[in-house]
């Protein structure tokens, strides 16, 4: 089948979130054909180029969400009236005290049809008309109190955010030879990433699937803490309504864990359409460490990850101070670096705290002391890989106060290491009963759990072996690919055929899609299908690349 893969800030670019997962999915499902529709996250990402693409990727079309040049489209009077009507209706839904899903969908799809008919909405979404429509909605009777309190700077902020979020409406992807030519759309994230799939469903009846390993609505709440109440309220209403409409129209929604699933169901996802599919990870790099538990230093704890305030390394350092009182020989290795200036500042703070809590200890007046806490990064001779970091320690520690799916813990589980973690995000779901879990921001409990494992090597070995078995059963690439292969087949089996199959000469091919092909179920071999002429002979527009 032909799949339209929708991505944002990741595949097929060299650097990007979720890129590795998409690449493994495409390579694992090599019996299908993929068209990639990608949003880039910045100029630097575009300059870095793409990863090598496998032959099953037939087409790549890209668009930047981080910028949008004026498209030169000038709307006539009738088009301006249509825009004012639909945008005003959208703004009214965002300001209303009670969410109205049908009104939101009508307004959103009305804007999409206007963009398709007139050639784009970039200028209209940036116009004074849009800001005034938003202002009228905020001042209208029945609007929420937080919306009524919006001032001009708030309205400008919200209008600019909506302009960016609605840029996919102006793309030329929604044609018969674009997303109209695929058998299904698979959005690798929710929110704006899934919007082209929603529009392909509206225009052509293409079924679509949404995979979320991090719920975009939750991310919105976490990343806008400094905005005014009016801005937070209006943007939360937009993202919540978009998520609800996306979940309602999707054939299936596949969260990466139960934590994400609860968010999706709270936003309106039908339980019957939600299938939890754990992210697949390559277990091969961790095999040697997992099969050699004796290589671990019994007096070493390790933390591995990206350094940022949400990881709460301050609590970990205070917990380690208590651990050292019970087990003076213990060392702590903090492995990882910051990803942004905020993380760099936090790393500096943690280094200063470690120096204060653990002054360098020297055996005599003429020897150099050593701090029991080390801050390291992978890539050097002493620590070439993350696997080496996990393999060096008896216990892996996670101290986060905010966490989605704990990929680092799963890596430690592949290595057969016992873990001590805080109860956040999907931690409990990932480790099951194979590790110790303590409340977040509780250094005393974290210290007690670590000491208990440091003093009991047999228990560490049992937990490590159980963790490795659980990871190999649930979190491998093969498991992930098999799950999506079955979901793809189920979606297509439920969807009536839209195009008559053709033979090699372009003539109709009778009985190519027999009736039993539409019966839900799993099949050992796919039904043979001829490659239609449009798959190889369609002219390539300047904005796309065919491989």
TrEMBL record:
One of its GO terms (molecular function) is glycosyltransferase activity. Gene3D superfamilies: Glycogen Phosphorylase B. It holds the Pfam family Glyco_trans_1_4. It comes from the Bacteria. Residues 525-547 are annotated as: Disordered. Residues 1-271 form the DUF3492 domain. Keywords: Transferase. The keyword DNA-binding does not apply. The keyword Cell inner membrane does not apply. This is D-inositol 3-phosphate glycosyltransferase.
